[in-house]
Amino acid sequence: MNDAMGVVLDEDPLTGSFIWQPTFGLEHPAGHGPITFILTTDSGQPQPDATITSAVVRVHLAHRGAEKLFESRDYRQMMMLGDRHDWNSSFGSELGLALTIEQALGITAPERATWLRTLMAELNRAIHHLRWLGSTAGELGSVEVQTQTAGLREQLVELHESYSGGRLHPMLVQPGGMRLDVPDGWLDQLIGALEQLPTVQQSLNEFFSSDFVGASDGQLSLEDVKEFGVSGPTARASGLELDLRFDDSYCSYPELIDNRILNRTVGTSGDNQARFQTLVGELDTSANCITACADRLNSMSTEEPISVKLPRSIRLPHGSFYGWTENPTGINGWFITSTGGPTPYRVKLRTASFNNAQALEKVLIGMPMSQLKSTLMSWQITSGDLAK
Q: How far apart are CA 241 and CA 266, in angstroms?
């Protein structure tokens, strides 16, 4: 089979299994990466009406060696790599790395830098969710919703670029604070762009509340979420309330929680529709957080510092340190072991996509092949996370 559903790369006539690779449009983030599936069906063939009887997620090596690359660089140079393993959650990744380094050094970023970090983390979340939802709507047949969503996302990406200099890799965070402050008038432009969100969100709500193909498929139980360590929107759609912005709060999130600006978005059914609806619900929360951060930043003097002065050569104390953040894809953790030198002795990533992908083996069994594509599009995985 080689059609809009996917491609059969290899077949084993003795076992009836076949290696299947999903096929998505160029824009869909779930289609970027070295992941295939070893499947068997009740008919022994990869036909659309065949039911999947066994499934194994095969994550291919991409020879990136990200963790070893970190270990061969000093703590400032590490920031360049920090936002590259999950390029859909780039800012959250570099933020988590900086927070872990700051924890080890016992320093805190200035207040203005903290609010800038929070704003950019939520902007990254909004861009991530808009891309995922818009591309999925297009794949499932609504070009109108895709176009509308892509228009807003592109405006936010252009604002992201005008601040950081990069569309995908911001490289704004540095140990001790931020590399740059926002340009004059940038915050007002951002708030102006977000005025379109209610209209876009209404279109997304209407589409993903409808009975689209595969809406009730791909059910992931709360027990399986816990067993596989699934996190992020994929886990919250199944009823797990875990959200590190609440449960191990960092940056300016405690104040946003106290002011009831940041709220949890949690589903119950754990199916494809619930996962998409969770993403849509989180868009509104991110917009509220961005607005609150912009208001706070506008009330502060632009003369306030945005970074702590640190020595040119940063050396962490001897020991091991762990930090984590709630990235758009899910939990992203950094484990660093230092021997007191200018480079880390050991760096280990806890990436959301790797755990999330393993749980797919449970939900695919019993599903018709025709619903496999919509299920994969609802799952939060990024290939850099899988093949780090």
A: 6
Structural domain boundaries of the chain?
66-362
Query: Where does residue 193 rank: exposed (0-12), middle (13-18), buried (19+ CB within 10 A)?
Result: middle
Residue bearing tokens 């919509």:
374
- Within the chain, strands assigned E span 6-12, 17-22, 35-41, 52-59, 173-174, 177-178, 319-326, 331-338, 346-350
Res 2 pLDDT > 50 = no
pLDDT digits (tens, 9 = 90+) for 220-238: 999 999 999 999 999 999 9
For position 188, what pLDDT does the model report? Answer: 97
Longest dimension (CA), the chain: 71
SS3 call for 51 = strand
Q: Alpha-carbon torsion 34, 221, 132, 335, what sign?
A: negative
Phi, psi of 219 (to 5 degrees): -70, 125
Q: How far apart are CA 193 and CA 197, in angstroms?
A: 8
Q: Are 329 and 232 in contact (CB under 8 A)?
A: yes
What is the DSSP-derived secondary structure letter of residue 153? H
pLDDT tens string 309-333: 999 899 999 999 999 999 999 999 9
Euclidean distance between CA atoms 279 and 60, whole angstroms: 27
Radius of gyration of the chain (CA): 21
Average pLDDT in the 87-98 region? Answer: 93
Query: How crowded is residue 278: how many other Cβ atoms within 10 Å of its Cβ?
Result: 24
Give the containing element (helix H, strand E) for 385. Answer: helix 383-386
- Please give the CATH topology (third level) of the domain spanning 66-362: Cytochrome-c3 Hydrogenase; chain B (1.10.645)
pLDDT over 80 (residue 49) = yes
Q: What residue spans of 42-185 are helical by DSSP H?
A: 66-71, 78-82, 90-105, 111-139, 143-164
Q: How many CB atoms lie within 10 A of CB 181?
A: 20
